[in-house]
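re: the backbone from monday

yeah here it is again, tokenized this time
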């Protein structure tokens, strides 16, 4: 019977990891695949490797938090671990149905908190620290994007624009005794450098996904002593990699979130900011959402780009004549970049529709509703089903 429950628990973990791989791979590699820099198979392989790297190094801190600090490890029986993983998977399902990037990490914390409340073992100090960072992370993401959009984006758009030539990026030079890689026909050093940067950023994003998301799939099993930390990282990586090679092929086409409509430069900026916030908090052992930092950085980047038409004094006084829309990210950079406060508002009119402002409210609402619902349902389940262990 124990072997059967263990098999069910591992299947539940694989299901959660499989879905994480499907969504996270699209976020990390969608821009690179869309720009024809890398194919889907290579993207999935790199995703799997860097997820393992992130989970093995930084991610074990998050596993320890979810698997033994929010509630004691002794509370995680096999049955309790299965129920917790069920609620994590349910949260992901509801997020996919409503098309909202609800955080798997937040849902995991909610489900485990419900277990702690039902058994009287919830560490409120640990939970409070996590929630504080949940409030800080989107604010940091917004202002990082805002500063870049207001003061740096037009200059970066001018200097770091991705150039793409026809044909392969690299070829083998066979003129010498030993073949060596060389730039392809029409490939410039700038194109090679910018392409390398895009791929490196995607690898960094994959690393941050492993650091934050491997724990969501395996922390209950690790907490209950059903698998070790190293074994849990391997299991989570295999599950996420399976999703990366299968269902992620579609999400890499559509990316699955609002990065789809972003210019490649803006997507790179958002990915660096979101991955940095996520990796840093994962190093602290804080379960955090890539989607949370990503969405708010997009909003901040567009808001900062739009506010270039106003001076800092105008913003403080509220004396601004143009709507502050994140759609401004898609505005073309003028031949001569005007200083902040001197940009023509007409340059930001009629740009491509990027982001429905009402979506921000919906996303933030679900960031509250998602973990709250998981907590309530988990609490009810563990009150009705006395399957948890004792502290």
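seq for it, each position gets an aa:
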């Amino acid at each position: 019977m124990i072997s059967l429950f263990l098999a069910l628990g591992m299947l539940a973990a694989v299901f959660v990891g499989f879905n994480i791989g499907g969504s996270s791979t699209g976020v990390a590699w969608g821009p690179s695949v869309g720009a024809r820099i890398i194919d889907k198979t290579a993207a999935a392989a790199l995703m799997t490797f860097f997820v393992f790297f992130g989970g093995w190094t930084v991610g074990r801190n998050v596993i320890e938090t979810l698997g033994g600090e929010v509630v004691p490890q002794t509370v995680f029986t096999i049955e309790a671990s299965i129920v917790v993983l069920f609620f994590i998977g349910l949260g992901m399902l509801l997020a996919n149905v409503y098309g909202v990037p609800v955080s798997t990490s937040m849902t995991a914390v909610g489900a485990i908190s419900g277990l702690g409340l039902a058994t009287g073992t919830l560490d409120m100090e640990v939970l409070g620290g996590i929630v504080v960072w949940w409030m800080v992370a989107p604010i940091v993401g917004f202002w990082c994007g805002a500063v870049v959009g207001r003061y740096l984006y037009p200059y970066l758009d001018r200097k770091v624009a991705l150039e793409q030539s026809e044909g392969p990026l690299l070829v083998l030079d066979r003129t010498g005794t030993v073949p060596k890689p060389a730039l392809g026909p029409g490939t410039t050093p700038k194109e090679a450098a910018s392409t390398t940067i895009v791929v490196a950023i995607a690898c960094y994003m994959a690393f941050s996904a492993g650091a934050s998301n491997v724990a969501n799939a395996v922390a209950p099993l690790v907490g209950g002593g059903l698998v070790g930390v190293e074994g849990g990282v391997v299991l989570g990586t295999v599950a996420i990699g399976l999703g990366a090679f299968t269902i992620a092929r579609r999400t890499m086409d559509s990316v699955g979130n609002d990065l789809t409509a972003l210019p490649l430069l803006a997507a790179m900026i958002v990915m660096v900011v979101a991955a940095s916030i996520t990796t840093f908090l994962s190093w602290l052992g804080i379960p955090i959402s890539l989607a949370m930092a990503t969405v708010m950085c997009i909003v901040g980047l567009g808001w900062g780009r739009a506010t270039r038409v106003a001076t800092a004094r105008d913003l403080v006084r509220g004396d601004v004549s143009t709507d502050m829309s994140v759609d401004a990210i898609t505005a073309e950079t003028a031949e001569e970049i005007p200083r902040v406060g001197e940009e023509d508002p007409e340059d930001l009119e009629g740009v491509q529709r990027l982001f429905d402002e009402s979506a921000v409210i919906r996303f933030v609402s679900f960031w509250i509703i998602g973990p709250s619902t998981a907590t309530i349902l988990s609490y009810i389940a563990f009150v009705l089903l006395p399957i948890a262990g004792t502290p």
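Strands lie at 170-173, 180-183. The chain has one domain: 2-384.
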